[in-house]
């Protein structure tokens, strides 16, 4: 039926016990191919499941709730650990007093981030203050700070945006910002508002 057991050695001991040692062989290359493919798939699933990214958000502003969403989950999330890649993340203070912060941080400042393990292990984070309505009408609303957690060479790298006039790396249009990028597996991010 494809796989068979073949004796490789027989030994008669003093008690005349008959012991056989077996090796597996396959006479059907299709079974070997299926086993090989299954092994690769299990390894890939294990790798994907092993990837995780911590998102920690702190609100020192006195109002609002720090939330984020990403490409894989359009529902607002708070601090926690994301299993797998975190692509296109954006964090803001939902319900911040005196501002009309909408989904994706529309009308307010926001931190954008991507955390991923696959080649080239590129992690990136930046501030968005793109005031154009077609780009989300992101206005400076509160001080923002982020810092990478873990991720080898990423650990401890940070950037801050304490005021509208002191946020040199922020995107004020889609082409002029400077994301903080680093290479490292399982990098997390800590985002602080105020």
| N/C terminus separation | 69 Å
Number of strands: 13
Number of helical segments? Answer: 1
The proportion of residues in beta strands is: 35-45%
Protein structure class = mainly beta
Radius of gyration (Å)? 27 Å
Query: What is the string of helix and strand elements?
Result: EEHEEEEEEEEEEE
Biggest sheet: strands, sense, closure?
A: 6 strands, antiparallel
- CATH class of the largest domain, named Mainly Beta
Strand order of the largest sheet: 5-4-7-8-9-12
What does the overall shape look like?
globular
Question: Per CATH, which architecture of the largest domain?
Answer: Sandwich
In round numbers, the mean pLDDT is 81
Predict the CATH topology of the largest domain.
Answer: Thaumatin
Organism: Ceriporiopsis subvermispora (strain B) (White-rot fungus)
Protein name: Thaumatin-like protein
Keywords: Membrane, Transmembrane, Transmembrane helix
Transmembrane segments: 30-50
Could you characterize the architecture of this molecule?
This protein has 194 residues and is mainly β. The protein contains 1 helix and 13 strands. The chain has one helix at residues 29-50; strands at residues 3-12, 18-26, 52-59, 65-70, 73-77, 80-83, 86-94, 110-115, 122-128, 144-149, 158-161, 180-183, 188-193. Strand 8 and strand 9 (122-128) form a beta hairpin. The model is unreliable at 1-26, 31-36 and 38-48 (pLDDT under 50).
